[in-house]
Input
Amino acid sequence: FFATVEQVPGDPILGLTDAYNADTRPTKVNLGVGIYYDESGRIPLLRAVKQIEQQLAAEAKPRGYLPIDGLAAYTSATRELVFGKDSELVAAGRVATTQTVGGSGALRVGAELLAHTLPHATVAISNPSWENHRAVFTAAGFKVVDYTYFDAARHGLDFDGMLADLAKLAPGTTVLLHACCHNPTGADLTEAQWKQVAALLKEHQLFPFIDMAYQGFDKGIAEDGVAVRIVAEAGIDSFIVANSYSKSFSLYGERVGALSVVAADAAQSRAVQSHIKRIIRTIYSSPSTHGAALVAGVLGSTELRAMWEEELGQMRTRIHALRAGLVAKLAELGAPEFAFIQQQAGMFSYSGLSRAQVDTLRDEYGIYAVGTGRICVAALNQGNLDYVAKAVCAVSRS
Ligand code: PLP
Ligand code: TYF
Output
């Protein structure tokens, strides 16, 4: 049956981890995949997560099915985190939130919903974007186009280019926006820029699809969610937010995410939710229990929530310090041109290194970065920072 099946290429980012794991050099460093590692180079198990896990284990509850749209305590806590405590949209019953299999699952279920409801679905994604955005929307039947986002020469946002491209899109086009900590560039919009974008989206009748995979990783939980609130306040009556707890709870493998669909009124919201349930029923029937119980347990407890917020704060502070440390070290080595790394937000930095330089980093130093020059700053630590800075300096001079 499979004689004619040909091998397809694997995910370039996840493939890097395989290559890194196979590398036997003790000095190797994996700056490829977007994972936050702690100072000892491990994926942290957050204190609040550990505590709730112990509580849940002690309770030893049976594992029945969750409803198709997930654990109610999880979806309501998520809605509050994503839209804010005082959200008028939430109060009006206009937000339908569904537990999904990670942020990726939210993107796919959201894309399926739009593919069913929008004729000739087209999505515009930033250039560049997380590669899976293109793949997910294509798989759901979308035509995918780009909008200008990054100015490689200035290592920052090309805001005028972004506005100009968005203004050219046909009404009804879906626009995929990174709420914060843009993957892969680390270039984010300011609040004032978000307001301009939101006004443009409304004027041109574009459909915002906000992907928030790194809430709390740059400035703070509410601060990093500002795009959602600005789009809501712009009076755009329908939009989508996909969020993920993979990074903010360090629960990558638990696959905890959510899809929130904002509709014009509560009745529309209920109808939309019924479609989402139908989509999920025909893919995986219902989500899994454990990760959602962990997140809901932490968010629902004053004590554990404070503990989580504190630890998330420590993670983002550490990332800022790593950026500053890398920039300082590079400057000390005679490479002050990397100062822009400190202006970028979140885990990632578009380092400006070429594909050939990335290859040299890997071959000569055992340092793995994405071919586009993206590095994960959150994989640095005091033990590897000098080594990485020296290598980056050396390859940038080659
Ligand atoms: N969106 C972006 C921009 C991401 O970087 C990621 C990373 O993993 C995701 C979505 C997906 O998150 P998850 O791992 O929860 O599926
Ligand atoms: O961009 C990253 O590195 C993370 C992790 O197919 C990731 O978002 C990468 C590729 C992928 C799934 C997750």
Q: What stands out?
A: The first helix runs from residue 12 to 22. The pocket of pyridoxal-5'-phosphate (ligand 1) is lined by residues 34, 102-104, 130, 178, 183, 211, 213, 244, 246, 257 (CB under 6 Å). The two ends are 50 Å apart (CA to CA).
